[in-house]
Structure formats: structure tokens, C-alpha cells
């Protein structure tokens, strides 16, 4: 079954592709011209510099060489393909590697969805429609393969709405890697500059501000309503594909449950509706019959077996985002418990664990970076969370006679909050406090800041492994070993990274190493590398005659230190690179572990097996 997820801002590409022969094997991508009424099924990202320049053609998809034929990619509803970090949609859920990956969800426009779209009709004169605005964004994404530079800019349009106090809400993917944001009110022909105040990647929400007083004249912010009930009528409003004026689609609430958020690769409460959500609807509000906003349109699900499945971010998630911002002056993110759980449906399993009743979930694994690592043990059974009983299927009571995934309770907490867990350990019931914090990813789905970290030593380019880099380089060139670590490994300490040699800029000083690329570097002069900043510190403080880099499978690269340092400036000039390292590596290095701590184990080498990841009876909290 081809699974697709579409999130929804409409995009037009204003520039041609830039040539970059070395990376011609990168994943191919296609983009949607503003004049086209079709959305491609490729990933939402900035134009890649991976083939000879070619102007974008309207009403047609443009492919670049190197994409695997069986690759299932994602498309943001903003018309440019989308994937998590670089303006692109990240595949939801846990990823496998090679051909074993779960199918990615795609953003895709379907003619059957367009048939549901209706004229505003009775809503034409509704005042709450005037609070919905059109968003025009110019994006400039980082180039993860050439981390010292940016990709060509591209533009997109989406929707947003007023919430009062000079602020607007929209989707995070609508304003990702923004260099300019403009908004326009309904019935107005003037665009006003907007700024991003906060961006929640995991919940796909962004908070904007507009300073112009002219923009806010006569504006009435929307009222946030409560979580709807099943079969409640819902109206989605925005500026989707197919025209320039506001559009209204109608439907009903089909389902409310914990849902995979494609952009943030997270699982939060979501509202499933059957109203059409098309490219351009992203960031637009969904209303109940009382004219209250009950959520934010953000993605759709497409498959051969299903149609008209759209998703709305509920006001409970929106309120959590806004409260987080108000509490901390910035967005800190949704917390997690950091444990791998197994359902306890089997009576013999419960009896073996001395669980007397039909409740609880088994702790299979605890993430080393979570606070739960100091409290919970493998084999513990969690039977309650803040005195709410957890069922043997990993669910908890929800509203009157519904049940919902246990991780919903965790998502109601804020970073730094303490939860009380009731657990059964060796047949005895005890209560333990656990602090909840956002999850630490060994291989991040998104990169904080404007540019990826990088370090160039005599033409050897080092950078941390990230999901955007994997998507950009394409999985074939990354290799199964690195993919396995990216998909299954857990960080053993905060700040840990998988540092790789991404490429070698050929020069006589690095003869023999030119063909190296996408290999993990483990040690420098015998010292195990903790992260890219640690490697930069080791190189800067090195006084040895030789610099010895140890890679996977005992592969060595040795450079004479003085010769290498002398050649570095010339190599940077030859390749037009402004600096040998990213700005963040200019800061003094602080060792969080301490140099005297033994770190002889293989960092990141803690694989989670396919068995643990693939069974429905297992879930991450």
C-alpha cells in the first residue's frame, strides 16, 4: 500500500537548479509550479544543486538523476516537496534502513479531494473569515552536503490566522528556513512583513508577529474552542491551490487519537477529518459550528485504500505550544518518558511478572539520556501515571468512554515537569518520581540554527550525521552501517554525535584519501570522538607530528600536522570556502563528561532491533 501524507502550503519555485557535478547521485526532487494544478509526490525541500541548470516547467514534474526507483518520498502541501529539516517532510514513525524502511507518507493532491471543496456560501459574511490571512514565505535552506553554503531560495504560500496581541499562528513547515515572510489579509492588496517569534518543529506550529498597526486595524482574533466530539461538523478555511481568494471546505470529525506528526517525526494528539485539505491550507484554522477555532490544518493521509483523510492540530496542542512560549520566553518542546514499552495482553506474561490485574506495560528499555534511566529498570511494569491507571494495551481513559495511547498523558506535561509513576518491581508496587524532558536524538531530525556544523582539515570535511544529510545524500551513498546507527541507535549522553567524513576536497596533501566519503570517524590520535566540537578541540590542541584519524573497520587516514595546516588555507581558497569551520565551533569547547571519565565503549552502538521496532505490541513513550 502506498502511504502518503500531505501537509498543506502551496509553493512556487522562482529559480533554476544549480549545477553540482560531484553530488549528481543525490536524491531526485520535483517541484510544483504556481500555475500547475498537480502536486508531485517527491519531497518538500529547496532546489537541489545536483544536476545541470534547467528551468522549471509548469504543469510538469522535473526529476534529477540518482533517486532510487522504489523510493517513496514525501510532499508538503506547499507544493514544493517537504521533509522535516530542510523544508522537507520527515517520514513519520521509526525508520528502518535500506529496503526495510517503513513506507514514507507523501503529500499528494488528489482530484477527489478537490470535488469536496465548496464556495464560502453561508460563510461569506462571517467575521471570523477575516482573521484568516495568506502567508508568502521565501525559504533558503542549508546545504547539508556542502555545509558552508546555502541552497537556492524558493517561495511558498500558506495560511495563518490571528490569535490576538499582534500574533498569528501557522504551521512550522510553512515558514521553515525563512528569509522573508509576508502576510496579506482577506480583501486587501497590501502585504505586510511578519517575523517568527517561536517555532515548534515537533508540533508543527509557528508563532508570527506583525509590527504594522495598519495590518491590525479592525482585526478580530479567533476564539480557541474545546476538543470536538466525533461526528461534529468542521469547516477548514485557508488559501489553497486553485485560486487566490479564501476557500472553505466542510466535513466532520472522524477520529481523535494520538497521531504521527509528519514534519516533526513526533506523536501527539490529532483530529482526523474528512474535509478536503489541499496544498495551501497548511496553517489555516478549522472551525466548529459556533465559529470557534478547534485546530490548525496541517497534513493529509493518502493511500490506495483510503481517501479524504485530513488532519488538524487540536487546540490542546496549540495551547501547550503557546503556554510553553509564555512560560519560558521561547519554545522548549514536548517532553517524553524515554522508555521502550511492551503491552501485557498475554496472561502468562503478566503472571510471570507478578502482575495480578489486567493492567500495565513492561519496560523493555530506558534511554540513557532520560531521567527515567536513573529511576526505572528493565523488567519494571508501569501501572499508573499520576494516578491514572495504564491498561495492558498501553492505553489510558480518555473523556467519557474512550481510551487513548498512554503517551498522550506524557504530552500534556511540560519540559522539566515531574510525573509520579506507579510501577511493579519484582512483584512489589512502588511509586517513583520521574522528570520529563524532550528526547535527545543521536541523529537529529532537524538542525538548530542556520547552518550545519562542519570542520575542514586539509581538505577532509567532517560533519555530524543528521536525517537531512541522509535525505540529501541519498541512502545508497550513506551505506547500511550508518543507516542502521541512524535508525536504531540511542544517544548514551547529551551532546553525543555521529561524526562522519562527508567528502575529501582533493589536494596533494590528502593523496590516497580522495575517494573517501560518508564514513564515521571514531578516534583522533587514539582519543574517542564525542561530537564535532570535541574533534575540533582535539585538532586545535594537537602537538603531535601526525594527525591520525581512525574510521570504521579500522580504516586509517594519517596527515603530517604541519604540512596539513599549511595546506588548509590554500585548499579553502581553491574551493571558494569562506572558513575552515562553522561559527558554532569557534566557541570554546566544554567537555560535559569530563576528560577523566572512561569512554571506551562504542558511542552510539546500542542498536534497537527490528523486533523491538516493528511489533505493534511495542511502543516508545
UniProtKB/TrEMBL annotation:
Chain spans, region Disordered: 35-119
Compositionally biased tracts (Basic and acidic residues): 100-113
Coiled-coil residue spans: none
Taxonomic source organism: Hibiscus sabdariffa (roselle)
Family: Belongs to the peptidase S1C family.
Lineage, highest ranks first: Eukaryota, Viridiplantae, Streptophyta, Embryophyta, Tracheophyta
Protease Do-like PDZ domain span: 443-584
Pfam family membership, one: Trypsin_2
Transferase listed as a keyword: no
Top-level taxonomic group: Eukaryota
Name of the featured protein: Protease Do-like PDZ domain-containing protein
Entries under InterPro entries matching the protein: DEGP_PDZ, DEGP_PDZ_sf, PDZ_sf, Peptidase_S1_PA, Peptidase_S1_PA_chymotrypsin, Peptidase_S1C
Bias (Polar residues): 52-62
UniProt keyword annotations, A-Z: Hydrolase, Protease, Serine protease
Amino acid at each position: 500500500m502506498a502511504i502518503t501524507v500531505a501537509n498543506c502550503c502551496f509553493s512556487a519555485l522562482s529559480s533554476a537548479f544549480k549545477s553540482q557535478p560531484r553530488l549528481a547521485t543525490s536524491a531526485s526532487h520535483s517541484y510544483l509550479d504556481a500555475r500547475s494544478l498537480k502536486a508531485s509526490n517527491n519531497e518538500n525541500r529547496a532546489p537541489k544543486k545536483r544536476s545541470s541548470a534547467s528551468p522549471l516547467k509548469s504543469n510538469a514534474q522535473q526529476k534529477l538523476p540518482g533517486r532510487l526507483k522504489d523510493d517513496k518520498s514525501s510532499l508538503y502541501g506547499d507544493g514544493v516537496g517537504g521533509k522535516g529539516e530542510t523544508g522537507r517532510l520527515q517520514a513519520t514513525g521509526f525508520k528502518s534502513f535500506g529496503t526495510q524502511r517503513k513506507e514514507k507518507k507523501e503529500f499528494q493532491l488528489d482530484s477527489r479531494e478537490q470535488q469536496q471543496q465548496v464556495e464560502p456560501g453561508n460563510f461569506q459574511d462571517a467575521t471570523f473569515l477575516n482573521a484568516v490571512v495568506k502567508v508568502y514565505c521565501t525559504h533558503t535552506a542549508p546545504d547539508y552536503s556542502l555545509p558552508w553554503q546555502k541552497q537556492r531560495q524558493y517561495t511558498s504560500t500558506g495560511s495563518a490566522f490571528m490569535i490576538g496581541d499582534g500574533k498569528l499562528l501557522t504551521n512550522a513547515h510553512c515558514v521553515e528556513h525563512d528569509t522573508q515572510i509576508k502576510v496579506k489579509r482577506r480583501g486587501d492588496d497590501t502585504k505586510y512583513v511578519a517575523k517568527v517569534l517561536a517555532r515548534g518543529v515537533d508540533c508543527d506550529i509557528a508563532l508570527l508577529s506583525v509590527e504594522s498597526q495598519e495590518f491590525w486595524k479592525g482585526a478580530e482574533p479567533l476564539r480557541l474552542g474545546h476538543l470536538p466530539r466525533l461526528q461534529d461538523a468542521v469547516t477548514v478555511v485557508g488559501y489553497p491551490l486553485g485560486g487566490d481568494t479564501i476557500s472553505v471546505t466542510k466535513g466532520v470529525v472522524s477520529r481523535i487519537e494520538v497521531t504521527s506528526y509528519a514534519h516533526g517525526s513526533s506523536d501527539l494528539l490529532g483530529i482526523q477529518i474528512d474535509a478536503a485539505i489541499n496544498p495551501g491550507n497548511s496553517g489555516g484554522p478549522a472551525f466548529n459550528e459556533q465559529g470557534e477555532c478547534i485546530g490548525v490544518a496541517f497534513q493529509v493521509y493518502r493511500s490506495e485504500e483510503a481517501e479524504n483523510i485530513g488532519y488538524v492540530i487540536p487546540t490542546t496542542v496549540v495551547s501547550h505550544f503557546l503556554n510553553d512560549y509564555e512560560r519560558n520566553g521561547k519554545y522548549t518542546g514536548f517532553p517524553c518518558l524515554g522508555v521502550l514499552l511492551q503491552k501485557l495482553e498475554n496472561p502468562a506474561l503478566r503472571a510471570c511478572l507478578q502482575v495480578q490485574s489486567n493492567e500495565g506495560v513492561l519496560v523493555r528499555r530506558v534511554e540513557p539520556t532520560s531521567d527515567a534511566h536513573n529511576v526505572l529498570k528493565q523488567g519494571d511494569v508501569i501501572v499508573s501515571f499520576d494516578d491514572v491507571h495504564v491498561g495492558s494495551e498501553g492505553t489510558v481513559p480518555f473523556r467519557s468512554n474512550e481510551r487513548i495511547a498512554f503517551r498522550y498523558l506524557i504530552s500534556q506535561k511540560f519540559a522539566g515537569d515531574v510525573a509520579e509513576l506507579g510501577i511493579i518491581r519484582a512483584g512489589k508496587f512502588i511509586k517513583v518520581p520521574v522528570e520529563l524532558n524532550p528526547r535527545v536524538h543521536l541523529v537529529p531530525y532537524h538542525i538548530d540554527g542556520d547552518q550545519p556544523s562542519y570542520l575542514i582539515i586539509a581538505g577532509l570535511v567532517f560533519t555530524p550525521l543528521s536525517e537531512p544529510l541522509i535525505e540529501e545524500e541519498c541512502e545508497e551513498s550513506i551505506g547500511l552501517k550508518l543507516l542502521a546507527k541512524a535508525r536504531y541507535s540511542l544517544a548514551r549522553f547529551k551532546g553525543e554525535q555521529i561524526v562522519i567524513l562527508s567528502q575529501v576536497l582533493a589536494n596533494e596533501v590528502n593523496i590516497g584519501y580522495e575517494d573517501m566519503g560518508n564514513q564515521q570517524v571514531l578516534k583522533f590520535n587514539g582519543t574517542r570522538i564525542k561530537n564535532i566540537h570535541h574533534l575540533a578541540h582535539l585538532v586545535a590542541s594537537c602537538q603531535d607530528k601526525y594527525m591520525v584519524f581512525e574510521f570504521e573497520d579500522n580504516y586509517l587516514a594519517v596527515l603530517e600536522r604541519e604540512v596539513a595546516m599549511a595546506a588548509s588555507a590554500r585548499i579553502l581558497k581553491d574551493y571558494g570556502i569562506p572558513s575552515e569551520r562553522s561559527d558554532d565551533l569557534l566557541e570554546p569547547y566544554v567537555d560535559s563528561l569530563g576528560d577523566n571519565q572512561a569512554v571506551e565503549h562504542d558511542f552510539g552502538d546500542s542498536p534497537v532491533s527490528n523486533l523491538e521496532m516493528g511489533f505493534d505490541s511495542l511502543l516508545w513513550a
